[in-house]
Amino acid sequence: MNTEIIATITVPTFNQENYIAETLDSLVSQETDFKYEILVGDDCSIDKTADIIKKYEVQYPDKIKVFENKVNQGILKNYNRLMNAAKGKYIAGCGGDDIWHDPLKLKKQVDFLERNQEYAMVHTDYDRLFESGIIIHNFHKENTTIPQDEMYYHALMKNNFILASSTCTRAESYRKYIDIEDFIKHGFAMEDLPMWLEFSKHSKIGYLPESTVTYREHGESISNNQNYRKAIKYLESSYKARTFYMKKYSCSDDVKKEFRIEYHTKMLSFAFKLRDRALGKKSYSKLLKLEKERVDSNIRWQIFGLNNLVCWLIAKFVFKLKN
């Protein structure tokens, strides 16, 4: 095997003691015909995450290198540190609570990028695992229409359907088009969506229609946090990022409208869960202005619930049954 590092796996972590061992087990078990490294960045966890990853570093000194932040840096700075240290020609990310259940995941993606030089990155299908134990296999196959090459940018404007843990990126493309410091300057709370949008405008994004990753859907997930106020901030940052790119690269009026309808519908849902009347009123007003006929019965029930406790309890019960 060539001693040169061909691929880097980056693993940003923060308070993931219950999951990180299983994550790392899946990464060191990757079957490749090339050398790869695993860079783990712990962002000053207050649980036992740091202790666990240090043990793995000792156990796998030829593969794992740990970076510890003495002060919490936040998602973007932690991620940037790992990317700057990456030695691989290709860089694949994995969340500290996700699992690469396909031992050939990394090899398949590196092989794809080797064969297709016009692609900046490639992603795959994935399984979605809920805390209840319910799992949705091949989530994209059942729920997502993957766009053609030239349509990725517009599709991502409406929905970030690319799971970060399912991606593998060409390092050269990353360094050419991505500036995390710029993302920080613009106040983005995530690195993935802005990256995908940049790549989609400068290069092609590939897709392998097979599940290689298990994504954990739980209360600690950044984009699905049970702390709805944090989830709202994440959604607002997503809105900010998309608005920025609408101005930077333009976008059709239809796509802008669809994106804004989706955004305000999600905001109304959070307002309902929090019984935040001010947020609900604002979101509902925006929806009515965008397209009145799209305001369906579910949305109206949420508005009733925001103004009436009995309606709120009924609507909450009905939505729970549906979900």
Q: Can you tell me the number of structural domains?
A: 2
Q: Runs with pLDDT <50, length 5+?
A: none
Principal-axes geometry comes out as globular
Under the CATH scheme, which architecture of the largest domain would be assigned?
Alpha-Beta Complex
CATH superfamily of the largest domain: Spore Coat Polysaccharide Biosynthesis Protein SpsA, Chain A
User: Order of helices and strands, N to C?
Assistant: EHEHEHEHEEHHEHHHEHHHHH
What oligomeric state is this? Answer: single chain
What is the residue-averaged pLDDT?
90
Rg over alpha carbons: 21 Å
Using the coordinates above, name the CATH class of the largest domain. Alpha Beta
Word description of this protein:
- The chain has 323 residues and is an alpha/beta fold.
- It has 2 domains: 5-223, Alpha-Beta Complex (Spore Coat Polysaccharide Biosynthesis Protein SpsA, Chain A); 252-322, no CATH class.
- It has helices spanning 20-28, 49-59, 75-85, 105-115, 139-143, 152-158, 171-177, 180-185, 192-202, 228-249, 253-274, 277-290, 297-307, 309-322, and strands at residues 5-13, 35-42, 64-68, 90-93, 119-130, 135-136, 168-170, 204-217.
- A hairpin with a 4-residue loop joins β5 (119-130) and β6 (135-136).
- The protein is globular and about 65 Å long.
- The mean pLDDT is 90.
Key traits:
single chain; 323 residues; alpha/beta; Spore Coat Polysaccharide Biosynthesis Protein SpsA, Chain A; 2 domains; eight-stranded mixed sheet; 14 helices; globular
